[in-house]
Design goal:
The complex is a heterodimer of chains A (525) and B (128).
Chain A: H1 2-53, E1 55-61, E2 67-70, H2 73-77, E3 85-88, H3 89-95, H4 101-112, E4 119-126, E5 132-144, E6 150-159, H5 161-183, E7 186-192, E8 197-200, H6 202-208, H7 220-224, H8 226-240, E9 245-252, E10 258-269, E11 275-284, H9 286-321, H10 330-360, E12 369-372, H11 373-390, E13 394-398, E14 403-407, H12 409-425, E15 432-439, E16 444-450, H13 475-478, H14 485-495, E17 499-504, E18 510-520
Parallel strand pairs in A: 13-15
Antiparallel strand pairs in A: 1-2, 1-6, 2-3, 4-5, 5-6, 7-8, 7-11, 9-10, 10-11, 12-14, 14-18, 15-16, 16-18, 17-18
Helix pairs in contact in A: 9-10, 10-14, 11-12, 12-14
Chain B: E1 8-12, H1 16-29, E2 33-37, H2 40-50, E3 54-58, H3 66-75, E4 82-85, E5 102-106, H4 112-127
Parallel strand pairs in B: 1-2, 1-3, 3-4, 4-5
Helix pairs in contact in B: 1-4, 2-3
The chains are: A alpha+beta (525), B alpha/beta (128).
Chain lengths: 525, 128
């Protein structure tokens, strides 16, 4: 009995004593299992993340031999299956591109010695298929022994091949672009909103004789000098405010040669359309200008040389007509008349050619004044009367008094004469050509010459203001003009800031008009 | 001052054609007494003796041009008013030659039948 009780007590006691231990053991085991499970999930997640980000982790335990533990993303990076693996440091180094080995070795040694806080190097690693991938390798010493020697070294390798290839392509593209821009026969400078130079090409250095150091990153005012800056400042500002401007400039290049330039200032915009910089491009137009000057000189000489014999021919014919050599027979009169008319036509052609060249070349200054417009119209009609009467047309002048027009009197009489000549030429005999002027809005004045002719053929309308454009009117009428009248008229009106055009007139015929700035005298309104 | 009538005209032009045309136009048609000279030097030699009322000078001549000839004639004491015979200068540019007593410009090519009348008009405008 005592024995059995003792046993019972012993068992119960033991049970009492052990059960908490057993219970605690069970709890610990569960926790451990849970922790292991969680760690596994975390590791999977980490591996997923690593794989997604192309990060390959290495962990080099320097104490237990020279084994480096590598994450499953490592073999993936090298073109294989995802699995956790180990390599020796020597095996790892063997994968590094021969040209990068020294760089990597140096970086590792410096990090291990503690000379640099982090290992950070870009290098190539050989893939399983023999190709190389670019990796950005970063790491640090994660443990040191009591004597400070590194015992663990861990970090990541990121595959940056795509980026490096893109960058290399970009660099190549940039190099090509650079060469293209450098070989362009135009001097280019790009400057930022603070007016500092961001970019320039070789042609700019050749043109200015400046060194790259004297241009790069410097303020435009510093590059070109204060004097020149004063001339270009408004164009430069305009470009930075989003406006393009274009002008011609004459400069002396480093060799002392005079160079004609066409200069363009243009804004550069970002994808949102904001002006982020501006570009100025200078084209050397010296050869064009030289040709232009040659052409002007040639025309001046040619027209003088043509005029001299024409003067003699016209003079002689005039004297014959005047009866100096005796009375001419009717037939002789007719023939002399033909010779005379053609002489005059040649003279007009030469004069018009020379006149047009002068106007288009910007020579022959315009004397602009506020003109008593009715008086000018009357004068133009008077001086045209001779040839107009030969066409059997009558002029009619309609104008409000007190109208003034801003322009060059002689040139505008030339314009009016051309319009009157055309109107007379294309009008039926006995019809009326109406000349009128009226004020438009903003103090502009419209002057019109209206004929009762057949109107302008559809196919001729677009080129009527071109040089040597003549409507197909049959040989007799063609021969009377130079084909330059309207071209000259347009040049003159446009040089005076006006515009010229034509409309079909109501009731038949055509209205040629030109608009110029002017006024209507307050006293007479 | 009452101006004498315009009767004697001295023409200086290096071109033979022009000399004969102007000679006929002014002489035979215009009824003037005309002396023609082929150069400035010739004009200088003969001007005083001819005593012209008016000088008609071509501007564009080799050696001595029209302006140089006129200056030389003035320096030699000839005061007759002058007219330039050229396409090169425009009437409004004449101010430059005001001190030389230039009345006007006859542009080339010219109408020989009207030349006499044009010169008479300039002559009259000056007198008036």
């Amino acid at each position: 009995m005592n024995d059995s009780l003792f046993h019972i007590l012993l068992v119960a006691g033991t049970l009492l004593l052990v059960s908490p231990i057993f219970w605690a053991f069970a709890r610990t085991r569960n926790a451990l299992q849970r922790a292991l499970r969680e760690a596994s999930v975390a590791r999977d997640r980490l591996n997923d993340a690593l794989e997604g980000s192309l990060l390959a982790v290495f962990d080099w335990d320097m104490v237990g031999g020279s084994s480096v533990r590598l994450s499953p993303t490592w073999p993936v990076m090298l073109g294989g299956e995802a699995l956790e693996t180990r390599l020796t440091a020597a095996e790892l180094f063997a994968l590094v591109h021969p040209n990068d080995v020294q760089k990597v070795r140096d970086a590792v040694v410096e990090t291990l010695k503690g000379k640099v806080p982090r290992y950070d190097v870009v290098h190539r690693v050989r893939r399983n298929d023999g190709a190389y991938v670019w990796v950005h390798s970063r790491g640090k010493v994660t443990a040191r022994d009591a004597r400070g020697r590194a015992t663990r070294f861990a970090g990541t390798n990121a595959d940056i091949s795509a980026r490096v290839i893109a960058e290399e392509r970009l660099k190549e593209r940039e190099l090509q672009l650079r060469q293209l821009i450098d070989t362009m026969p135009a001097a280019i400078v790009v400057f930022g909103t603070d007016e500092h130079v961001l970019f320039h090409n070789r042609a700019y250095l050749e043109l200015t004789g400046l060194s790259a150091e004297a241009v790069n990153g410097r303020r435009m005012s510093e590059v070109v000098g204060e004097g020149v800056y004063g001339q270009i400042e408004r164009h430069l500002r305009a470009a930075l405010e989003g406006r393009t401007s274009r002008f011609e400039q004459q400069v002396t290049d480093p060799s002392g040669r005079t160079v004609d330039l066409e200069v363009v200032y243009m804004p550069l915009r970002d994808t949102q359309g904001r002006v982020t910089a501006a570009i100025t491009v200078r084209f050397d137009i010296t050869r064009l200008k030289d040709l232009d000057r040659m052409k002007d000189g040639f025309i001046a000489v040619a027209s003088h040389e043509l005029r001299t014999p024409l003067t003699s021919m016209r003079g002689s014919l005039g004297l014959l007509q005047g009866g100096v050599a005796g009375e001419l027979s009717e037939e002789a009169q007719g023939l002399v008349g033909i010779a005379m008319q053609n002489c005059e036509r040649l003279v007009r052609l030469v004069n018009d050619l020379l006149g047009l060249e002068k106007i288009t070349a910007g020579h022959g200054a315009f004397r602009v004044a506020l003109l008593d417009w009715p008086a000018v119209l009357e004068q133009a009609i008077d001086s045209s009367r001779g040839f107009v009467e030969s066409y059997g047309v009558v002029f009619e002048l309609e104008r409000p008094p007190g109208l003034r027009v801003r322009g060059d009197e002689d040139r505008l009489i030339q314009v009016l004469s051309n319009l009157l000549f055309n109107a007379a030429k294309f009008s039926p005999r006995g019809s009326v050509v109406t000349v009128s002027a009226r004020p438009l809005v903003d103090s502009w004045v419209r002057t019109s010459v209206r004929d009762r002719g057949p109107g302008i053929p559809e196919h001729f309308r677009s080129r009527i203001f071109q040089r040597f454009a003549q409507a197909d009117m049959g040989e007799d009428r063609r021969s009377e003009g130079s084909g330059l009248g309207l071209a000259i008229s347009r040049e003159i009106v446009e040089r005076l800031g006006g515009r010229i055009g034509f409309d079909d007139a109501q009731g038949g015929g055509t209205v040629f008009w030109f608009d110029l700035p002017g006024t209507l005298d307050a006293a007479t309104t | 001052m009452t101006a004498p009538a315009l009767t004697r005209i001295l023409l200086v032009d290096d071109q033979r054609d022009i000399r004969s045309i102007v000679g006929l136009a002014l002489g035979k048609i215009g009824g003037f007494k005309v002396k023609v000279c082929a150069s400035g030097a010739e004009a200088l030699a003969g001007a005083a003796e001819f005593a012209p009322d008016l000088l008609l000078l071509d501007l564009n001549m080799p050696e001595m041009d029209g302006v140089a000839t006129l200056r030389a004639l003035r320096a030699a004491g000839l005061a007759s008013p002058a007219v330039f015979f050229t396409a090169r200068i425009k009437p409004e540019e004449l101010g430059r030659y005001q001190d030389l007593g230039v009345l006007g410009v006859i542009p080339k090519p010219f109408d020989p039948l009207k030349l006499g009348a044009q010169l008479r008009e300039m002559w009259k405008a000056r007198a008036g």
